[in-house]
Amino acid sequence: MYIILSLATKMKMLGIDPGFRIAGYSIIECTGNRLSIVDVGVFKMAQGLSIPVRLQLFYDFFNDTIQTHSITALTLETSFMGKNAQNFLKLGYLRGALYLLSQKHSLALHEYAPREIKQIVTGFGGAEKEQVARVLQMLFPKVSLDGLPLDATDALAIALCGVWKML
Amino acid sequence: MYIILSLATKMKMLGIDPGFRIAGYSIIECTGNRLSIVDVGVFKMAQGLSIPVRLQLFYDFFNDTIQTHSITALTLETSFMGKNAQNFLKLGYLRGALYLLSQKHSLALHEYAPREIKQIVTGFGGAEKEQVARVLQMLFPKVSLDGLPLDATDALAIALCGVWKML
Fold first, then answer.
1. B88–A89 C-beta distance less than 8 A
2. B80: chain A residues, CB-CB within 8 Å
3. Does residue B127 sit within a domain?
4. With an 8 Å Cβ cutoff, is A113 touching chain B?
5. Per-residue pLDDT of chain A (167 residues; tens, 9 = 90+)
6. Residue B40's CATH number
7. Is B91 a member of any domain?
8. What is the pTM of this model?
9. 3-state DSSP call for residue B31?
């Protein structure tokens, strides 16, 4: 006689689209093949605060989020330099904070290029942010994504790509 | 009758020249107007390790250094993008870790452009690293800087500039 155990491992993926003014984030829970959105939103920081203070707030917010939700994995977009080199450097501060958090909490860390994330989520690597949001709404009809900032739906696409790549 | 109190406040300045292979650092103690080198050297990381692991090692090393030596202030160079954008982004990870440490330990944080540091230490903003090292040796004749990597003497110049700017 054989006893077959269903090892439905639980994964809690945090997807983050970092920024010093507004950071999008989302948490997707995956039990077996069942996916559900645990949280999706944005973390905002006042522009009057210094960069070190905002970095600390960003670190503390995600440190709490990871602990509160027992996050097991983290997905980020790889970053490419835009027009402003100093903004690119500052993005490095935020990514550095997330790398430290991935080490502190022993999270699996995944990174995908923006084009790859759009390709996987919408089937088209050149999709606009609004198209990505529409596809996500179709994939998760029970959760209303209406009115969410695009930073939040971007983060949801990032987390979903991270989950699908792991399944 | 007046009693004059000599308020010889003690400052312990940490200067850091961050890098993922080798990071230069130095500690200068300043009691009243008397300056002394407490430590100057480099922290090396094995290239085989991943970036998040090296970032954690870098963070832990300087967290320990700040605690062990009761550091009160931190000076860094401002950074400008060189030829490699990805190296510039990675430098952002290290600087982000140092910003977080400055917040955690309530350190005064100072940043000066490389040219300004050389100008202040040697009198010439375009000085070579070797010239900077020679001037530092003349300023601190009791400590042998011979054979130290230039990352270490760079960090000493950074700390010294930070101290002089505060006096």
1. yes
2. 85
3. yes
4. no
5. 555 544 456 899 999 999 999 999 999 999 988 999 999 999 999 999 999 999 999 999 999 999 999 999 999 999 888 888 888 999 999 999 999 999 999 999 999 999 999 999 999 999 999 999 999 999 999 999 999 999 999 999 999 999 999 88
6. 3.30.420.10
7. yes
8. 0.91
9. strand
